[in-house]
């Protein structure tokens, strides 16, 4: 769902070609959420079917410009106005895995330590990326969110470890 | 309130070292003063305590004065002073005259005291002599018989134990007085209050030569009714001095009359104030440190709802407890020390009264100690109420400081010019000026104390230019304003006081020295035969035997028809300020050219010629030679016959051997001719200082009644003074500085860990503390130097004025700055303090990072 | 070039083994973080690295020199190693520049030259303006920056930082880490002890200590 809403949000800035939308989406999310062009067009045609976007002219290469409709704008507004509920978030694979480890794995501690190292590395990468992204605020905030998440994960891992020992 | 005290008590127990230190600082002065007061009170035999010893069972001691007219006396003494001029010839009293004045129905027992020469196996000794019939019941309690029996007939004496120690035994016969009258020792007595006294007691008429100057007759009197003070005053009007038992027991209110009282009281008050001030300055920082340690505890208490007032009270309670405990402990210990120690001290010869503790005075001292403790805690207590960071608060009260300094200086100038206000010649004013000058200086000292925090901060800022080794201590010291300013102020006060007194008294002494006129060159000895020619040959032989190889020159004295010695002295008129003479300035040597050469230290043909022509050779440049002649007064040297003889001689001036020498040499023949007296040899002079003067004098006395005098110059009581001043300053300066340094070390501990982490070596820690000690002491000593210099100058001026009787200053004032002493105090002590602090710092504990995990 | 090497280092205090067989290297240009709960031996590690303490066994080498053979460890701290602590880093009675000058002056450098060097380093950390301020007048972050400047003055390359962000808020903490990172990029070797993952994430390598032992290490590979 979020891809659709993300594209709609980008379209609300102005009409775009599909490939342009893809580039902007990736730029905004810091290439952390790569999209392939097929996904984009599929999402756009579904959105068009739902009346949220409408196609415009076709250029000499056959590429279509898309425009957001009033319904589309309303949908974007609604999306922004509604906080994300916990049940809407994707299930955390890590949590499930850890719970299983604690219940079933003989050496849960090593599982924790291995995950911690990996998460830490992720955080290091994110931090470096953030340093290098002097770019726009949106990009950095996305990175920050991931950093915070990783931090929370690490804290939780420490907590698990304490619980086990 | 109880909770507050409990908290304070607990904190004291926790910080034992610091608490002990503060208690010691407060308790020590209290201990010393209590001990002194108790000792003094015990040793002092008040007239009331001594009444039995002095007059047995009698109601009064009556002493006729030297005249039959009105006299004045102190209620507690029997010495009466004639109110008029002092030069009238004495009018001897007869016993009937005295009896006529006393109330009817009285009984009078002759009673006299004085000194008597006794020839003992070891030589001549001068003993205290009492002439009274100890068998008479009126004398009960005056002496106790220890052995033998009391003298019952003429020629019998009793002595005290101390005399036995000189080689006399019970039953011996010893010659007494110059006339060598035989006296048989029949008993041993004891003086109840002075067990170590050496005394000889006999019936009237044996021991004392009559007439002694002023102590003619004396009586123990038993009257039907007690002799009251009005009765004493009545007898005074007729010329009798009376010491009455009734007056001793119940003195009239005027007994505290004394010209010195106001000055003495002010001086004591100032001394007490300064001691309290020093204690407060030294103990204050210790309280502050304790405060910092309890900050968390206090914060917790504050969070529980205590107001700022409560917090302040907690800190003051600290001061109250520590001050109180220290003072009480000090007071009790001092009293005990004195009570235990005085019997030992009394062996040295002071009288011993019953153990007496002046409780009122001791309590006052203890209270003062308590007050000091509370005062020392006030500054930290005020600080705890104010939570603001000290960094930006205005440093001290510089304005107040400057004002006080100005006031003090102005007051000093005013005092020194005070004769204009109080009238020159007012003796009481002059007696007060030096104390007042000290008081004004105390005001200046207070001003500098108020200024000190500002000075400390300024030095901190100025430290920018210093190399790191010095910058660091100075900056740290100036950051901890309270303890640094306190310690520096303590050092300043002591330095100022020591310098002021050193300069003042040394200057005065130099002035005195300049004024002193010796009668003889330094190092001259004189043998004076007291009896003219009768025993002179023996004396001369003895002297020559005892002093082989010393060139002794004979001198003459004049003798009257009865062979009584008359000597001549300088006239009293002086041109520029009367100079004072050493003892022998009263007698001018009479002799020939050999004597003249001795007194001039060289050959002076002109003076020798003048002398042989019958002219007096005058050395004293202050004496007026009127028309080439001089008039000399002659007095009976050893007898109390008042009429002087006058002689006029031609005179010339000459210079003597020493610049400080005055006097003259008289031509014997001319004096004889001019006065009609005969002259004979009775003196020996020589330039020699005997190794054992006392021994030689005793030998001479034994040979035939002669005494010995050696011209040592102006006595210098000041020699030890500088050392005492330096010693006591050293103790306070070092003590105060080291206390502050100890506090600095505690404060610095944390930053020392940082220093170690950035690579400071072990020496840096020592250097840091040594630097602080030196800085504090130097700041204090330099400030003290300025204050002390000014105060010392003012003191010198006022002391000189007191002596010379005029305020024509400062041209007539000698200023002496004891430079060695000053340098030692201002530079030497800070260096010493820095050295000691550096040497005695403990190695810093191995510095690790703050959390050891 | 490796500036700090710990080989099989152990430190025992009586019964307690604070560090057990720790191997660690920090090279110039590297920022290494050490993480662990309290009691894990982090501060002991830092004390040993700078010569404030001696290991019970194993070797500690700074710039190739075995500390056991160095007689004047204080000189080491003046010239080769700089410490930054969580707080109380600075001497309160000295100004910022005087604080930074301190190691140089302790080493015998003349005041004027030391001052120049100090001002240069203060410039690099962005505090030139505050050179004459006293620590009391600076914010927490500024104080830490002065401490870092002091750790770097002179020829020093190895910075040992013990929870430098502990007393600071997040934004200021980030500033400090940015500065440390920048110094590392400029060639310093930084050993950072922290319990905050977000700050450890700035490092090239993160080492986890547990009960005195290294349990895992997260190395950020890939070229810069």
From TrEMBL, chain A:
Q: Where is the Transcription regulator PadR C-terminal domain?
A: 91-164
Which residues belong to any copy of the Transcription regulator PadR N-terminal domain? Answer: 7-76
**Record key words, sorted:** DNA-binding
Q: Which GO terms describe its molecular function?
A: DNA binding
- Pfam families cross-referenced by the UniProt entry: PadR, Vir_act_alpha_C
**Which SUPFAM superfamilies has this protein been placed in?**
Winged helix' DNA-binding domain (SSF46785)
Q: Which residues form a coiled coil?
A: none
Query: Which domain of life does the protein's organism represent?
Result: Bacteria
Its name, as the record gives it, is DNA-binding PadR family transcriptional regulator
Q: Which organism is it from?
A: Nonomuraea soli
Automatic annotation (TrEMBL), chain B:
Membrane topology term? Multi-pass membrane protein
Tell whether Transmembrane is among the UniProt keywords.
yes
Q: Can you tell me where the transmembrane regions are?
A: 21-45, 264-291, 311-339, 359-379, 399-416, 436-457, 485-505, 722-745, 775-799, 819-841
UniProt superkingdom: Bacteria
Keywords assigned by UniProt? Answer: Cell membrane, Membrane, Transmembrane, Transmembrane helix
> Which InterPro entries does the annotation name?
ABC-4/HrtB_transporter, ABC3_permease_C
The answer on whether this UniProt entry bears the keyword Mitochondrion reads no
Sequence ranges assigned to domain ABC3 transporter permease C-terminal in this UniProt record:
271-386, 724-839
**CC terms in the record's Gene Ontology section:** plasma membrane
Q: Name its cellular compartments.
A: Cell membrane
Recorded protein name is: Putative ABC transport system permease protein
Query: Which source organism?
Result: Nonomuraea soli
Taxonomic classification, please? Bacteria, Bacillati, Actinomycetota, Actinomycetes, Streptosporangiales
Automatic annotation (TrEMBL), chain C:
Q: Name one Pfam family in it.
A: ABC_tran
The ABC transporter domain is annotated at 4-223
Q: Which terms in the GO cellular component ontology are assigned?
A: membrane protein complex; plasma membrane
Signal peptide segment: none
Q: Kindly list the GO molecular function terms attached to this UniProt entry.
A: ATP binding; ATP hydrolysis activity; transmembrane transporter activity
Kindly give the InterPro entries that the UniProt entry links to this protein: AAA+_ATPase, ABC_transporter-like_ATP-bd, ABC_transporter-like_CS, ABC_transpr_LolD-like, MacB-like_ATP-bd, P-loop_NTPase
Write down the CDD domains for this protein, in alphabetical order.
ABC_MJ0796_LolCDE_FtsE
What UniProt keywords apply to this chain's record, in alphabetical order? ATP-binding, Nucleotide-binding, Transport
Output the SMART domains linked to this UniProt entry.
Answer: AAA
Which residues, by range, are in coiled-coil regions? none
Asked if the record carries the keyword DNA damage, the reply is no
- Identify this protein by name: Putative ABC transport system ATP-binding protein
The source organism is Nonomuraea soli
């Amino acid at each position: 769902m979020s891809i659709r809403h993300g594209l709609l949000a980008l379209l609300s800035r102005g009409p775009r070609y599909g490939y342009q939308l893809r580039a902007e989406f990736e730029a905004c999310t810091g290439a952390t959420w790569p999209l392939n062009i097929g996904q984009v067009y599929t999402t756009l045609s579904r959105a068009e079917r739902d009346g949220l976007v409408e196609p415009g002219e076709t250029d000499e290469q056959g590429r279509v410009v898309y425009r957001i409709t009033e319904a589309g704008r309303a949908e974007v507004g609604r999306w922004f106005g509604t906080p994300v509920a916990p049940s809407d978030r994707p299930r955390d694979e890590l949590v499930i895995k850890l719970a299983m480890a604690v219940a079933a794995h003989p050496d849960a501690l090593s599982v924790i330590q291995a995950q911690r190292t990996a998460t830490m590395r992720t955080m290091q990468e994110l931090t470096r990326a953030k340093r290098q992204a002097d770019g726009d605020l949106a990009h950095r905030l996305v990175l920050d969110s991931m950093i915070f998440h990783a931090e929370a994960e690490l804290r939780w891992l420490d907590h698990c470890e304490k619980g086990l020992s | 309130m109880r909770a507050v005290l409990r908290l304070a008590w607990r904190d004291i127990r926790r910080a034992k070292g610091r608490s002990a230190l503060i208690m010691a600082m407060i308790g020590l002065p209290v201990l010393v003063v209590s001990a002194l007061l108790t000792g003094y009170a015990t040793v002092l035999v008040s007239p009331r305590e001594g009444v039995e010893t002095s007059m047995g069972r009698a109601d009064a001691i009556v002493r006729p004065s030297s005249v039959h007219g009105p006299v004045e006396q102190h209620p507690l003494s029997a010495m009466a002073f004639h109110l008029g001029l002092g030069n009238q010839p004495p009018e001897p009293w007869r016993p009937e005259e005295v009896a006529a004045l006393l109330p009817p129905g009285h009984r009078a027992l002759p009673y006299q005291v004085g000194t008597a020469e006794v020839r003992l196996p070891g030589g001549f000794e001068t003993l205290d002599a009492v002439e009274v019939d100890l068998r008479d019941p009126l004398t009960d309690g005056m002496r106790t018989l220890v052995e033998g029996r009391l003298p019952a007939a003429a020629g019998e004496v009793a002595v005290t134990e101390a005399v036995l120690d000189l080689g006399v035994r019970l039953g011996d016969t010893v010659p007494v007085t110059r006339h060598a009258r035989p006296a048989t020792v029949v008993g041993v007595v004891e003086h109840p209050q002075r067990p170590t006294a050496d005394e000889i007691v006999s019936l009237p008429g044996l021991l004392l030569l009559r007439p002694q100057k002023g102590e003619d007759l004396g009586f123990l009197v038993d009257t039907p009714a007690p002799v009251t003070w009005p009765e004493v005053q009545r007898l005074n009007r007729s010329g009798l001095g009376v010491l009455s038992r009734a007056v001793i027991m119940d003195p009239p209110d005027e007994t505290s009359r004394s010209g010195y009282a106001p000055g003495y009281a002010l001086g004591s008050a100032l001394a007490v104030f300064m001691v309290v001030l020093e204690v407060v300055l030294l103990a204050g920082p210790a309280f502050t440190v304790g405060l910092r340690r309890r900050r968390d505890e206090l914060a917790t208490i504050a969070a529980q709802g205590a107001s700022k007032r409560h917090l302040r009270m907690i800190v003051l309670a600290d001061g109250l407890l520590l001050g109180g405990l220290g003072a009480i402990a000090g007071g009790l210990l001092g009293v005990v020390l004195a009570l235990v120690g005085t019997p030992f001290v009394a062996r040295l010869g002071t009288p011993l009264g019953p153990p007496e503790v002046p409780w009122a005075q001791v309590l006052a001292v203890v209270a003062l100690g308590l007050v000091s403790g509370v005062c020392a805690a006030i500054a930290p207590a005020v600080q705890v109420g104010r939570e603001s960071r000290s960094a930006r608060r205005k440093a001290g009260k510089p304005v107040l400081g400057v004002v006080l300094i100005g006031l003090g200086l102005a007051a000093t100038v005013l005092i020194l010019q005070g004769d204009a206000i109080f009238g020159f010649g007012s003796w009481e004013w002059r007696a007060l000026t030096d104390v007042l000058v000290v008081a004004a200086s105390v005001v200046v000292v207070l001003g500098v104390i108020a200024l000190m925090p500002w000075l400390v901060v300024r030095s901190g800022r100025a430290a920018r230019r210093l190399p790191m080794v010095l910058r660091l201590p100075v900056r740290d010291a100036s950051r901890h304003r309270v303890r640094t300013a306190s310690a520096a102020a303590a050092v300043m006060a002591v330095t100022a006081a020591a310098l002021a007194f050193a300069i003042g008294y040394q200057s005065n002494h130099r002035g005195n020295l300049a004024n002193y006129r010796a009668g003889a060159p330094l190092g001259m000895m004189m043998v004076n035969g007291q009896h003219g020619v009768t025993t002179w040959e023996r004396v001369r032989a003895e002297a020559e035997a005892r002093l082989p190889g010393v060139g002794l020159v004979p001198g003459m004295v004049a003798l009257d028809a009865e062979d009584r010695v008359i000597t001549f002295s300088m006239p009293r008129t002086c041109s520029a300020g009367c100079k004072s003479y050493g003892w022998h300035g009263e007698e001018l040597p009479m002799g020939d050219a050999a004597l003249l050469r001795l007194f001039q230290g060289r050959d002076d043909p002109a003076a020798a010629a003048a002398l042989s022509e019958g002219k007096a050779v005058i050395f004293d440049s202050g004496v007026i030679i009127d028309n080439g002649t001089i008039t000399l007064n002659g007095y009976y040297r050893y007898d109390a016959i008042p009429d002087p003889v006058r002689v006029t001689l031609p005179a010339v001036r000459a210079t003597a051997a020493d610049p400080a020498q005055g006097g003259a040499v008289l031509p014997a023949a001319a004096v004889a001719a001019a006065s009609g007296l005969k002259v004979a040899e009775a003196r020996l002079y020589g330039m020699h200082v005997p190794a054992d003067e006392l021994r030689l004098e005793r030998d001479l006395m034994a040979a035939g009644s002669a005494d010995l005098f050696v011209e040592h110059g102006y006595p210098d009581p000041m020699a030890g003074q500088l050392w005492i001043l330096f010693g006591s300053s050293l103790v306070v300066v070092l003590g105060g500085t080291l206390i502050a340094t100890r506090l600095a070390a505690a404060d610095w501990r944390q930053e020392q860990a940082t220093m170690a982490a950035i690579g400071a070596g072990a020496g840096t820690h020592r250097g840091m503390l040594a630097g602080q000690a030196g800085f504090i002491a130097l700041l204090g000593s330099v400030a003290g130097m300025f204050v002390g210099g000014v105060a010392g100058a003012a003191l010198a001026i006022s002391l000189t004025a007191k002596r010379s009787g005029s305020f024509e200053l400062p041209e007539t004032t000698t200023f002496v700055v004891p430079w060695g002493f000053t340098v030692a105090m201002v530079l030497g002590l800070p260096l010493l303090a820095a050295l000691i602090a550096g040497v005695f710092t403990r190695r810093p504990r191995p510095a690790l990072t703050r959390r050891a995990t | 070039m490796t500036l700090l090497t710990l080989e099989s280092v152990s430190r025992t205090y009586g019964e307690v083994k604070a560090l057990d067989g720790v191997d660690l290297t920090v090279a110039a240009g590297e920022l290494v973080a050490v993480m662990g709960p309290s009691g894990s031996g982090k501060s002991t590690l830092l004390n040993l690295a700078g010569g404030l303490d001696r290991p019970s066994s194993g070797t500690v080498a700074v710039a190739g020199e075995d500390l056991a053979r160095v007689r004047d460890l204080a000189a080491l701290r003046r010239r080769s190693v700089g410490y930054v602590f969580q707080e109380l880093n600075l001497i309160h009675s000295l100004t910022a520049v005087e604080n930074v000058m301190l190691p140089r002056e302790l080493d015998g450098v003349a005041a004027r030259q030391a001052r120049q060097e100090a001002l240069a380093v203060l410039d690099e950390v962005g505090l030139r303006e505050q050179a004459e301020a006293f620590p009391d007048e600076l914010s927490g972050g500024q104080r830490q920056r002065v401490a870092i400047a002091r750790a770097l003055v002179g020829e020093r390359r190895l910075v040992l930082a013990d929870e430098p962000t502990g007393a600071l808020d997040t934004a200021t903490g980030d500033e400090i880490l940015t500065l440390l990172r920048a110094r590392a990029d400029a060639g310093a070797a930084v050993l950072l002890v922290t319990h905050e993952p977000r700050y450890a994430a700035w490092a090239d390598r993160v080492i986890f200590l547990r009960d005195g032992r290294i349990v895992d290490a997260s190395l950020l590979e890939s070229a810069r």
